Amino acid sequence: MRKVIPPNPIRLESAGRARRLFAGRARRLFAGCAAAVRRLIVIAPVAAVAAGCGYHFAAEGSGLPPAAKSIYVAKFANRSRYTGINDEFMRYLDDEIADRKRLALVDNAADADLVLTGEIVFADQVPAAFNSASEPTIFSQSISADATLIDTHTHKVIWSTRGVSSTEQAPVVDQSVITTSPIFLQQNLRSQDIANLTDIQVAQTQNSASEEQMMQTLATNLYASMSEGF
Known about the structure:
Blueprint: H1 9-60, E1 70-73, E2 77-78, H2 85-100, E3 104-105, E4 114-130, E5 136-151, E6 156-171, H3 182-185, H4 191-195, H5 199-228
Helix pairs in contact: 2-5
């Protein structure tokens, strides 16, 4: 006859405590996870709305006076050694303001709510890379501007900046041209075209494309700073 061993009450109590402890921890862990999920559900839409608001603020110009509807852009002065670079930049700046549609460009300061003045304080082009014969293969183009925005109704300066800038790289030999770069892909040239150009032609085309991108970036940076007030 098989002997029946009665259960050990101490072991049963220990096992029961273990089960209760495990169950308690499981409930707390589940509750914590559920709370975290609820927080994410609440936070995610808020973050999305905030991101959306940030986008609209940047596009609408939250740093500008709400009542301002028009702007006059005075011709920027030129303190650089490159003649006419200020005139060239004005075209990009006017286009940037017009494209944003927050302010209407007017031809007379008397008709404007805001007046933007400024100057090109620096422009230069220097070698940035060389080949084994110490010949430049890439040039770095840089431009910098100061600007001031005046409220014509209060005659007060409501924003100003110093040294807003832009820098771009201009390859001068075909071996230095990155044909997969965004700047190159915006051009009408393709990799096979570059291979058939002389160094002078490569320098001219890439210098022009780099300068265009540099001007556009400066106009974008200046408008962003002005419209957001930083």
